[in-house]
Write a structure and sequence with these properties.
The complex is a heterodimer of chains A (about 170) and B (about 290). Chain A is an alpha+beta fold and about 170 residues long. Chain A has helices spanning about 30-35, 90-100, 110-120, 125-135, 145-165; strands at about 10, 15-20, 55, 60-65, 75-80. Chain B has about 290 residues and is of the alpha+beta class. Chain B folds into 2 domains: about 1-170, Uridine Diphospho-n-acetylenolpyruvylglucosamine Reductase, domain 3 (2-Layer Sandwich); about 175-290, CO dehydrogenase flavoprotein, C-terminal domain (Enolase-like, domain 1), CATH 3.30.390.50.
Chain lengths: ~170, ~290
């Protein structure tokens, strides 16, 4: 692509979205928020430090601010909006509510994405592992205790579900 | 601006040949920060060649006969962090685990670390200590050089504008290896000072490299000679007096500056502490507990 204003198509949350009249140097975070109207991913540091723009690309957790949007064509992008339908929260989202892990809420979408990613890879994380795996998501309100509690609640409830499936 | 998303090595090299002024984008963890802040535009970046989806760059190969590991430039830290790389090059794996956060390690690549060539790049002290070879390729052909000749200064390398970093090759050594760094927190931190140590039991030598304390990664030849002469490699023993001497030699080898991240004095002190710590882990037996 060499034209300033060439359109390109991204695959976001299961559907194709066309991006038009965009500068090709734009980050995926900017395109998601400003061009596609997906405001769930938050923009704060724009240098990969805070994790509030975490999304999954082809199943891997990354910072959307560090992805060149035009380079993500053909890849599967999942944002917080794609985690669960409105009104029917995922188990991780519900656990954050139940555990009181949300205060101002700015970091929450990124932490929900990171927690889904963590539990897919490691269904029974230790507290140390949770702290290491969520270390790229900064929260300035909670002190992290209730966030870790929320992650552990999901691990326990998923394990109970698996056991009852086997019973 | 022009953006070319390469899917084969050949197409990436052709694109770089046509636009040698292009910035090479791999994991994006450095370059995208520059785009987001406007610095990339300010310094005139008008073309980008994306290489993170070039399959040839994203693989590694272990040669047990030669005792080497060749790691493609596009291999990401999240892979280097894990088995089997953690068995073959434990120090590189430890360094990988200290890079940024899981999000950064899923994106950032070893080739990007080498290409960006920051004195604080976490992989670089390990590549220096292991005497890694850097493989470059362009439409004109391929060439290789030692890491020490590749890194010329802060963000300055021997890469020609139309060249891509294709891979690095490191030896698989028998012996303890480690990487340690100092920073303001455990995660998501740029090293204030760092040390990589690799013991080569069969070669009866050690290699130590220092990061963030000079314009390039610095080796410690005097320290390495002293340890080679004084250590008991089979028993993993080194006297406390020699470790103390090594701490001074590491501090003397450092050429730190004072900047917004730390002071020269602190960096020199930190690097001596880390050098002593790495040596003590590599040689846990002291003269006292041997007696």
């Amino acid at each position: 692509m060499t034209d300033e204003n060439l359109a390109y198509t991204l695959h976001v949350n299961g559907g194709y979205r066309e991006v038009r009249d965009a500068w090709l140097g734009e980050s995926l975070l900017f395109v998601l928020r400003e061009r596609l109207g997906l405001m769930g991913s938050k923009g704060a540091c724009e240098q990969g430090e805070c994790g509030s723009c975490s999304v999954q690309i082809d199943g891997e957790l990354v910072c959307a601010c560090l992805v060149l949007a035009a380079s993500a064509r053909g890849q599967q992008i999942v944002t917080i909006e794609g985690v669960a339908p409105v009104g029917a929260p995922s188990d991780v989202q519900q656990a954050f509510v139940d555990a009181g892990a949300v205060q101002c809420g700015f970091c929450t979408p990124g932490l929900i994405m990171a927690t889904h990613s963590l539990l897919e890879r490691s269904p029974h994380p230790s507290e140390f592992e949770i702290r290491e795996e969520l270390s790229g998501n900064i929260c300035r309100c909670t002190g992290y205790g209730r966030i870790i509690d929320a992650v552990q609640r999901v691990a326990v409830s998923r394990a109970a579900e698996r056991n009852s499936d086997h019973a | 601006m022009s953006v070319f998303v390469a899917t084969t090595l050949e197409s990436a090299l052709n694109a770089l040949s046509e636009r040698p002024d292009a910035a090479v984008l791999a994991g994006g963890t450095d370059l995208m920060v520059e785009f987001n802040s406007g610095h990339a535009t300010d310094r005139g970046v008008a073309a980008v060649v994306c290489v993170n989806r070039v399959a040839e760059l994203c693989s590694w190969s272990h040669d047990p006969v030669a005792g080497t590991l060749r790691i493609g430039a596009g291999v990401r830290w999240s892979e280097i962090q894990q088995d089997p790389m953690s068995r073959w090059v434990p120090a590189l794996s430890q360094a990988a685990r200290t890079v940024g956060s899981p999000q950064i390690r899923h994106a950032g690549t070893i080739g990007g670390n080498v290409g960006t060539s920051s004195p604080a790049g976490d992989g670089l002290p390990v590549l220096s200590a292991l005497d890694a070879t850097v493989h470059l390729v362009s439409v004109d052909g391929a060439r290789s050089m030692p890491f020490a000749e590749f890194m010329l200064g802060p963000k300055r390398t021997a890469r020609r504008p139309n060249e891509l970093i294709e891979a690095v090759t490191v030896p698989v050594l028998r012996g303890w290896q480690g990487y340690a760094k100092v920073g303001v927190r455990n995660a998501m931190v740029i090293a204030t000072a760092s040390v990589a140590l690799a013991v080569d039991v069969d070669g009866r030598n050690v290699r130590m490299a220092l990061g963030s304390v000079g314009p390039v990664i610095l080796r410690c030849p005097e320290l390495e000679s002293l340890v080679a002469a004084e250590a008991d490699f089979e028993r993993g023993a080194l006297s406390s007096a020699v470790v103390e001497q090594c701490r001074s030699l590491a501090a003397a080898a450092a050429r730190p500056i004072t900047d917004h991240r730390s002071t020269a004095d602190y960096r020199r002190h930190a690097v001596s502490v880390l050098a002593g710590r790495m040596l003590r882990r590599a040689f846990p037996m002291t003269d006292e507990n041997l007696a």
